[in-house]
Every structure is written in structure tokens, then in C-alpha cells.
Amino acid sequence: MAYNRPWKSFAEQLELLKSRGMVVTDEAAALSYLERIGYYRLTAYWYSFRVFKLEQDPATKVLRTVRTDQFEADTQFVDAVALYLFDKKLRLLVMDALERIEIALRVDIAYLLGQRNTFAHLDAKELHPSFAGKVNKRTGMTTFDAWRDKYTGLLQRSKEDFVKHYRAQHGPDLPLWVAVEVWDFGAVSQLLAMMKVADKQRIAAKYGVSDWKVFQSWVRSLSYLRNLTAHHSRLWNRNVTDQPSLPNQGAIAWCDDFIGKADLIAKPFLLLAIARHMVKVVCPRTEWHMRMQHHLQKFPPQHSRRKLSIADMGAPAGWESWWIGEIQAGK
Prior knowledge:
By secondary structure, this protein is mostly helical. The chain has helices at residues 10-19, 27-37, 39-46, 77-114, 129-132, 143-157, 161-170, 176-179, 185-194, 197-206, 212-230, 262-265, 269-282, 288-296, 320-323; strands at 50-56, 63-71. It has a two-stranded antiparallel sheet. Strand 1 and strand 2 form a beta hairpin. The mean pLDDT is 94.
């Protein structure tokens, strides 16, 4: 279908919102936000304030929820802006945690595999044959070959002086403990997924996770979270498409609040809890989790008749009782 919506000036965008029931108390400020942030980006933050109604599908007779263009009563432009600013700070806090986790995982992998082989990241025999050797039917490449291509690309794009130095002094291949410094979170997650089970178990145990499959899914989901935050995407109430697994009941106390609750697992609060768990292992004296709790507890109030809260992020009732607690980590 041809796209037929016309270009609109900022003033016309604001008038459109007002015609749909949005209250604008300061037009100059609202126009400034539209100019700096953009209508489409802000759409994600006023979407929750739209009126939804039930209607019956004429063909199937099934009831379905349909979004209308109108806003709930008393919805103000500042309600969406406040959510946007809350989400922006949320992403910054998340990036702080993910940086620590990513760097620690690089060290974990390099220290463990490097004991056996200086160039373990370039040798598929150092990895699990089934995981690393799995063939992608579409590309014909093994998982390891695809990872190595990714690593080569990261290496070629790197502008770091240490890369030039090592390659000039020692040849084209970087030792593992140097190579990790050009990896992104995705490369870390993908190599971890190819490692031998015993190696995964050793790293997982350091973080107090006895099931390596659960730990692997945590790292994969945090890589997904990193991509969201790095691209400035809406985070606070997103439906998580790369959902983490959870351990058995009682294995990790705080996880019990999420087990068997698909609605909570599909929201980002669980990813925040996983980040909290891992950051407290990496930095036992950290106050990151306290800063995050303080931010979550300052969730912006709304003028709109539709009230939102961190429950819409997937926060379970009583989460504060374990959020500042200790993590049982391995050695």
C-alpha cells in the first residue's frame, strides 16, 4: 500500500494531538519537545494513554482490543514527556551495569580458555563441537564460522592503538586476552554459547547460577538489552522478545517471584533483576542497585485517567524486599 500521510509542521503535529484529546498546558514547551525529540519517538510514550476498545471481528466473531486515535481523559503532553525522561535515565543506568558485566565476562572467558590455548577463540576444537559446529541451513556456515566472521569485522573496524601495536609486533592474530577487548556484548554472548559445558558451568557458578543453560540465557538476554539501550529504544514497558530462562524453584530466591508468570517474564524488570544479580557479583560493594531502586521508586505520576506504574514494567509485588539483599556467588 502507498504511504499517504502528509508531512506536518511541528505546530500541525501539536494541533493533531489536541484534536485527539491531549491536554497541552504549555504550547511553547510542547513545541520545543517535538522539535528536539520528534513526534514519532514520543509516540511510543503516549501510546499507553490511547483509548482502547473491544470490538468484534466481523468474520470470526472473536472479540479483539483495538487502539483508537483518542487519548484517555485528562492525558497531558507532559505525561508522555515525563515517561520519556524516566526511560532515558533508566537506559543510562542499565548501560552502566551492562558495561561492568560485559567487561567481567570478557575476563572470565579469556582467563578460563586462555589457560589451555592462547588463541582458543580462533580454534573450534576448544569449543563444544555440537554448539560450534551447528550449520545454518540458509548460509551453510557453522556457528563458529559466523562468529569468527563477526570477530574479524570487529577487529577490522577497531581504531584502538593496542590492536595496531600487537599486529605490528606479533602478527595478525591477537591472543585471547587481547582479542576480548574488541568484542561487543553480542560476541561475548555468542562465544559463551559455543563453549564446552564444563567451561560454562565454571563461569555460571561464579555468578551463583548452578544451571549453565539458565546462565547462558541470561547473558543472551542481556545482550538483547544492551542493543535496546545502545540504540536509544523505548525500554520501560517493552515486550521482551529474547526472554531469559529461570532456575528451578528455590535455586535462586529472588527468581521465585517470576517463575511460572509469563506476563512478568515478558517485561524488562526481570532483565533489570538479572543485571542487578550479576553486577553485585562483579562489584560486591556497588551501589548501582540502590540507584536503580531510587529511580524506579520515582516513577512519574500522571494526570491522565489511565494510571501507569512499574507494575507495567513487570515488577512483582514486594520486589523491594529482595532488591537490596545479598547475592550468593561462587568462587
